[in-house]
Amino acid sequence: MTVQTEQETGKNEEWEPKIIAFLCNWCSYAGADLAGVSRIQYPPNIRIVRVPCSGRVNPYFIIKSLTDGWDGVVISGCHPGDCHYISGNLVARRRFAILNELLEFFGIEPDRVNFMWASAAEGERFAVLIRKATEKVKALGPNKKFEKKW
Amino acid sequence: MTEAKKEAEKLKKEIIVTGNEKPNVGVYVCHCGVNIAGVISVEDLIEYSKTLPDVTVARDYKFFCADTGQNIIKEDIQAGLVNRVVVAACSPRMHEPTFRLVLKEAGLNQFLFEQANIREHSTWVHMREPEGAYEIAKDHVRMAVAKARELKPLEVKKVSIEPTCLIIGGGISGMNAALDLANGGFKVYLVERTPTIGGHMAQLDKTFPTMDCSACILTPRMVDVARNENIELLTYSEVVEVTGYVGNFEATILKKPHYVDQVKCNGCGICVDYCPVTCGNEFDLGLASRKAIYVPFPQAVPGQFTIDMDKCIKCGICAREDVCEPEAINFEDEPEYLKVKIGTIIIATGWDLYDPTELGQYGFGRYPNVITGLQMERILSSTGPLVGKPARPSDLKDPHSIAFLQCVGSRNFRDGGNQYCSRVCCMYATKQARQYKEKHPEADVYIFYMDIRAFGKGYEEFYESAARNYGINYIRGRIAEVSEDEDKNIVIRAEDTLLQEPIELKVNMFVLSCGLEPRADAGDIASLVRIQRSSDGFFMEAHPKLRPVDTLTAGIFVAGVAQGPKDIPDAVAQAKGAASSAAALMGKGEIELEPFFGSVDMARCIGCGMCVENCAYGAIELIEDRHFGTVASINNALCKGCGACSGNCRCAAIDVIGFTGEQIFEIITKRC
Amino acid sequence: MSEQYKWRYGFFLGCVAPNRYPMIEASIRAVFEHLGAELLELEGASCCPAPGVFRAFHIPSWLVIAARNITIAEELGVSPITGCNGCYGTLRDTWVELEHDKEMKKMVNEHLAKVGREYKGNMEPKHVVQALYLDMGIDYLRDHVKHTFSDLKVAVHYGCHIVKPSDKRPWGGEYENPTFLDEIVELTGAKSIDYKDKFMCCGAGGAVRTAVKEISADFSREKLTNIREAGADIIINCCPFCHLQLDLGQMEANGIYKDIIGEPFKVPVIYLTQLLGLSFGIDPNQLGLIKNHELAGVPPFISIDPFLNIVKEQLI
Questions:
Q1: Is B441 on the interface with C (CB under 8 A)?
Q2: What is the per-residue pLDDT across B539-572, written as a single tens digit (0 to 9) for each?
Q3: Quick count: other Cβ atoms within 10 Å of Cβ B208?
């Protein structure tokens, strides 16, 4: 598998980004549920994976997502201080600060990977943040940096 | 258990699954009435599911959570058609337990189940974009099937539950929950921050709609709590740390120093006469004073005294032999920490009154005759600073006219305002107006309102009587602003919206019916026990309709105004509900936990120790293994299965059962 | 952008200030120059148009004309700034409404296209007081204060459009009882005194002055009575129309209501930047405070000599 260098990402008006979202069970997944219960509408670009805590998300998952063709990744956890497992979200935050630098070094646009906090009571906020992340990824165009050669 | 179920139990055969055989995945797409079927085509989704590898069965039904729906799944399992089950329906937070039970009843290991959320995360949030919703539904099903392939059978972990409950907050809710649990045979720690139990209800004079004297119905309860053998009453104490999990919490309680020996003090009160320090009285909201050595109010329970060290000048007069005969004063008193093991926790921390100082146009804090509703309670109260003869603050004359303003600090949609209705203010203003009219029938009493909410049992009748029989004037219109005249009367400018006329009114006293707010440190309490708060700041219930006293954290319940503004009957009902829920949990003696723990593949582990640092519970340590050298080892008793350890492991050696790396990789990959 | 200027705005003059009270325009220019804010000319700007009269007749026309004025600033890449509550009300309400109402914005741009303009909505209309209080900040202003008054009692008049409708204003927090103008005034050492009905309208706007002069004079009479009873030395305002109503209107009230007011009113009416400029040490001639002619019918109509005496006693 090779990484394509500086390729023009074709921005197609019809194209919609596909974003994988890792949501922590206690806050963000519940917040997404609340958005559903409240019928708050947001663009249909994310696919949700439930994890016990944002701390569970290993950087491998993010890189695997990008190499497998997902246009963007969202990781969402509890607000600092509110983590159900005390500090998992802070561990996650530190991890992604470093991962961001690594991604930039690889030539992958950092805006493809979005880290956010949303609590179980914040259905509206969840929808707003997803909308923002979707717009950011959409502006970058489809993820064409990885192409399987064999 | 129904008859049908009993029969089925007899016929059930156990299906042995090792986890290494070929997975046969059954996909069950629920219509959920029109919630799902009204937006996407369930038939198309079934056809799509059949194309996924390892899917042997794909069915749809109107409501899979219903008995008949559940039976469809059971029959497939018992016929040997499926050994992994995916239900595509609502959120797993809704019905995962329901469907796990279905598998269990059919004889299949309950953890071979995965739920695809195609309602809250698809059809409900993309109602006007059915194509988008359908794409999401397809992907969620594909991802759930991918995980299902990798699921392994697991056994639940059973832990014992300590039959002890910690109740934080000693107001009417905390006390009622404590009594119910204690009478049911459970041990209760009732922790209260102030020197006495009773809460805000002790500050009230009469309660609506019966006009019962608040202290008369409250104090017997307080005495019951103090006397109950199963309740350990810890007043003037605070919970400073809570660790552990449901059934097995450990709480650290700080017992603040009273500086008065609580055993020796007999509550005689002679020290009060001798104490030279006079300071503000919190109980009377600044309308009266107390000494540095005090009990908050005469009927306080416990009745022993406390010295407020912030105000005390340590003159030592109270410690003199001729003053304190039992020699109870102890200036060397130290804080004490108590560690207790508890099974369940109930949060009943109550409320603060909204502070209307920021509403400059109403003059609170500037004009002496503008007071809050709670201050009015104290002024009316027979145990208050005016001993039941209400008078106005500026000159202590009886007001001939009083105006109330409703919705102060509530129903406010400006930035940072409290949007909710505080539920009790319409009734308490009506009550206070009636009380005043009973003492002064000739007085003019006005209540300025937006809407009158008299929803409870006997409330509408109470309100009608107030207007009709007592002659209280209800004026529909918000007060724009007030000013003061030379005699400190309050001049009100408002609009009577029903008559559509501006009015100007001069009254002797102006009462702001302030709303209820969450405690200022509610955020600290939420972090302490790790529960969530709703957007209005009160503690969040697990489900607004069906689980009003549970929180999202197992074993922790909430009762009273801590969960949201409510009146006394509702607070007591909730307290009893929380006690019942806690008792249900503790009564069983043991609880089943999901067996999602960390696990270490020692062959891969290089013993770097990163996981040890990341574990907030100290559940991991490095050990010396005979074959593999220095490796990580997890203590399952402490592990919560959060995965903070495995998020960092570069060797993929440490994993979380139930959310393994393999399972997640399968979900991510789009190849199948 | 010139390096010496920290802020740049497009100066929207409006009608009343340049035509009736040019000292207000002069004092704004002097103070902003002193504070390091550049005021660019908005060539071709018209009447805002008036937020009361014009808007009451035909909202779409009002939006189009207001949008056109904003585009002049947009083309220069600056926020339009005005010293008039009325112009502020029009420009800012337009900006907020067109941000939310896409249909209206389309309609506005269809009309503007006919004169080769396009409204984008990317430049926020600001009031002079907003620039002073929010952009520059109280601390920055305090650093420029050279002289302070020792005993000046000021009745601060906010006016209406600067605070209402509150959801379209940047002030945050309490809308019924703002304090931002009092805070700026008190930087000069003056004391902002409380008076009855401080937030009452001056009576000029909404065609009241034009259509029913006596009623508008009655408004001024009531306000001036309250101000006099509170013992104020001067009135400070931040709107040329309020300034006109309280100055010329004071003279009118003295005439129409002479039987009920007792002593005629003689409270000097001063614009905010005139007071601020004095405190910063700017020449009072530049602030339009010194009368240098003998013409009749030229403002100020109520003598500001009492104020100038206070200045002489307390400041210099």
A1: no
A2: 999 888 889 999 988 899 999 999 999 999 999 9
A3: 26
Q: Across the beta sheet with A72-77, what order do the strands follow?
A: A46-51, A19-24, A72-77, A113-117
pLDDT beyond 70 at A2: no
Of B360, B481, B483, the CB nearest to C174: B360
Q: Round to whole Å and give the CA distance between C81 and B504.
A: 39
CA distance B149 to B54: 8
Task: State the pLDDT at residue A87.
Answer: 85
Alpha helices in B491-539 (DSSP H): 522-529
Under 8 Å between Cβ of B343 and B165: yes
Distance in Å, alpha carbon of A21 to nearest chain B alpha carbon: 10
B510: CB partners within 8 A, 6+ apart:
B362, B363, B367, B369, B370, B371, B402, B403, B404, B405, B482, B490, B492
Average pLDDT, integer, range B617-625: 89
Number of neighbouring beta carbons within 10 Å of residue B38: 12
C-alpha pair distances (Å), B396 with each of B386, B389, B392, B429 = 9, 10, 5, 21
Q: Chains A, C in contact: 3+ Cβ pairs under 8 A?
A: no
Q: Token pair 């983590």 is at which residue?
A: A83
Nearest to C177 among B361, B416, B483 (CB): B361
- Beta-sheet strands, E only, within B46-193: 55-61, 84-89, 113-117, 157-160, 164-168, 187-191
Residues B619, B119: Cα–Cα separation, whole Å:
37
B119 contacts A36? CB cut-off 8 A: yes
Chain C CB contacts of B415 below 8 Å:
172-173
Q: Which residues of B touch A69 (CB under 8 A)?
A: 670
Does the pTM surpass 0.80? The reply is yes
Å from B361 to nearest chain C CA? 6
The residue ranges of DSSP E strands in chain A, in sequence order, are 2-3, 19-24, 46-51, 72-77, 113-117, 146-147
- Asked if A87's CB is within 8 angstroms of B661's CB, the reply is no
How far B606 CA sits from the closest chain A CA (Å)? 17
Using CB atoms, which chains have 3+ pairs under 8 A with B? A, C
Minimum CA–CA partner of A46 in chain B: B136
Tens-digit pLDDT profile for residues B260-309: 999 999 999 999 999 999 999 999 998 899 999 999 998 999 999 999 99
Chain-centroid distance of CA C106 in Å reads: 31
Q: Could C166 and B481 be called an inter-chain contact, meaning their C-beta atoms sit closer than 8 Å? A: no
Using DSSP's 3-state secondary structure scheme, residue C253 falls into: helix
Mutate which of C163, C175, C177 to disrupt the B interface (most B C-beta within 10 Å)? C177
At residue C4, the pLDDT reads 81
Contact A50 B132 (CB under 8 A): no
CB contact under 8 A, C175 and B414: yes
pLDDT tens-digit series, residues A72-124: 999 999 988 788 888 889 989 998 889 989 988 988 888 999 999 998 888 99
Tracing tokens 């069965």 back to the chain, one arrives at B57
Question: Is pLDDT above 60 for B152?
Answer: yes
Q: Residue B437 phi/psi, 5° resolution? A: -65, -30
Please tell me the predicted confidence (pLDDT) of residue C34: 95
Query: For the stretch B413-428, what's the b/e string if a residue is b when 16 or more beta carbons lie within 10 angstroms of its beta carbon?
Result: eeeeebebbbbbbbbb
Local structure of A127: helix, strand or coil: helix
Say what the pLDDT of residue C169 is.
92
Set of chain B residues whose Cβ sits within 8 Å of the Cβ of A42: 125-126
- CB < 8 Å to B414, chain C: 166, 175
Rounded to the nearest 5 degrees, what angle is found at the Cα of A49, between the Cα atoms of B549 and B248?
40
Distance from CA of B480 to the nearest CA of C (A): 9
Q: What is the pLDDT of residues B173-201, one digit of tens each?
A: 999 999 999 999 999 999 999 999 999 99
